[in-house]
Structure prediction request, 320 residues.
Amino acid sequence: MATTTRRLGRTDLEITPIGLGCMPFGGPGIANRYYPTLDQATATMIVRTALDGGVTWFDTAEMYGRGYSERTLTTALHQLGAGTGDVVIASKWTPWFRTAASIGRTVGDRLAALQGYPLGLHQIHMPHGSLSSLASQVRAMAQLHRQGRIRAVGVSNFSAAQMERAHAVLAEYGIPLASNQVQISLLERRIERDGVLAAARRLGVTLIALAPLHTGLLTGRFHEDPTLFRDVRRIRRRLAGFSSATLTRTAPLIDELRAVAAAHGATLSQVALSWLTSYYGDTVVAIPGASKPRHADESAGAMSLHLTQRELDRLADVTP
Prediction:
């Protein structure tokens, strides 16, 4: 399926506006606190559905099961016959209680877990927790780039000032900062106020929207049946602020999503994702997760949905 792609920052990597977030593939450990463990057959079906829908890139991390998610993803890609040049894989280094030197020491583990697929984008998972300075971490990433072990350098959960600092350090090596992965959705728009969006546009950095459906709240299913909250793991409920008050506060937005979805023969999720990847121009891409093949199919379908400027603005206006 031919799908429009976007350049990842100022790198030579091309990605689709929608990728697949692979935290649900994480298995035992931190990821399992958020999602139940998926078997390989289910994960492979999810990846197949994403590829069939035109998705060309996948976001995973060392933290998602210490390689479990990376291996599950690449096992699926091998089973499906995806070539190493057909997809872009992004992963992340975990900084907690480690020095910058561990970036170089652990990249071999990342590459081993990717089972022959190249590490397209390597990201610093968060700006805190490391025993080394931010500049030292970014320089270690730059060395991997110079060695040809990674194709692009990104960050995650960085503020505007931290992103500017990372960009400046990489510039010393002639390397662009490719991306910053942060929470963005119709219900999380702080990038418009905290300088992250403005800095990304000025520096040519792509913003990767994590939790683009706000932990499922933008699907509308919890508004239809609030008892479904019970099926969401406690940590996800807490992070998303799930409550009866939240349902009441967000009801006007859900109603507007339903109206736009009905006009296009789409789902609420597809409208929310299309808004996200259109409202901010080419600056923002999204990585919705999927625990079932139909989730991946629905997300990929958002790339074929084109909202009018009036619809984009109306949805922005009713955001609580």
User: Anything to note?
Assistant: Strands lie at 6-7, 14-15, 20-21, 57-59, 88-93, 119-124, 150-156, 177-183, 206-210, 284-286. The two ends are 36 Å apart (CA to CA). Residues 244-264 form the longest helix (21 residues).
